[in-house]
Records
---
Amino acid sequence: MNARKTFETLAKEKAPGPSPSFQLFHIIKMLEVIAGSSVGRGTLSKELGIGAGAARTLIERLREEGIIAISKQGCVLTQRGKRLWKKVQNFIPSKIELERSQLTLSAYNVAILVRAKANKVRLGMEQRDAAVLAGAQGATTLVMNKGKLTMPHEDRDIEETVPETHERIICSLKPHDGDVIIIGSGDNHNTAEYGAIAAAWVLFGDND
């Protein structure tokens, strides 16, 4: 099973039973947290911003699929889990927080780098809609083309419009031609980050 199908299966409702109170972006965030160090259910619940029951269900799901193992120290990634997390890292290798600017929509903003997906971006509407469905206020999509960071199908150079934000993105995320920057904006850090991840997922292909 490829990475896309694996994530979508993990997030899918299982019958019989109630709908899961977690989404695909929670799973991606969970892998990131566990990859850093072994953690317990309480820490995961806090880091992901979900209830203890949802965290317990999510942990059990990933354990059943052989993605995590549970030890006295907490949850750890298995070899399969590490491979899955590596694919996520290859797709979205870095992220940063951004302050409010003309590019952002809220006080909380998280920008993520998406490698080599500029050819899949249309007008950025799909990313915005995905972010809103994830609970964010929206998302701003930028593409790197010929050494310039621009909005899709616009020639306006972001460096001229918001030079400080542009410098932070370039220096921290280091995009190359063909890369995409997605900025998720929300009422808090989690909703901003989840919005960015959900928006990026639109660009995630079956072969990634």
Note: The CA atoms of residues 67 and 81 lie 4 Å apart.
---
Amino acid sequence: MSDKVTAPRIRAMKGRERIVSITAYDAPMAKLADEAGVDFILVGDSVGDVVLGYPTTIPVTLEEILHHTRAVRRGVSRALLVADMPFGTYQPSVEVAMESAVALMKAGAEAVKVEGASESISHMVKAGIPVMGHVGLTPQSVFAFGGHKVQGKGGDADAILNAAQYVQEQGAFAVVLELVPAALAARITKCLDIPTIGIGAGVQCDGQIQVLHDVLGLSERVFKHAKPFMDGRGEVQKALKQYTDEVRKGSFPGESNSF
């Protein structure tokens, strides 16, 4: 399918076809993902620890997400473009949430993603802003969780299900389930009318999302919930080593690289 992907289309894909998503933080990578046929691209606040060198996503600012959203916008034509709302841009009040979401939409986003059971979701939806939810391990609450740990084990399962149902009731068109047991994710997926997008939540979700650098093998670690589909770090290091060697030997630039 080559036609433009929209939030209503993502919602309508539930039970009909699997939804594919990935993060992107710049125009070239966004263009490659778009051309590969992913359904939606997320400008995640994971840009903080993946690209900007922060220890967590918490330091990421709205201005940084706006910057990367504008960049990714320039590389995307078909996929739905979703922008994360970073920590502090929706928790203080509905008014703050609305201002933040409006800024992201003006920067080129076609939907925003909010972590947790936020009451701001319904206000944004009423204003015409498509909202994607996010429950389970919500990275902006990493300190409250005591680290990046699987959520929803044992007695906590119902709390995750209730949060997902609340997000749906607030008008979200889809919800990310992060680091929850596969059986719980399957249960939530069956209970909801909106699509579930899993990351470390098993194959029974309606779709999957992964961090670009994990998929390309560019991350320093291989996470249990991810799979590198190429040895990106190895290939990049090999190319840079060859470049370094050729410059030092004087074999680059050659005649074909000169004017």
Note: The domain at 7-228 is CATH 3.20.20.60 (TIM Barrel).
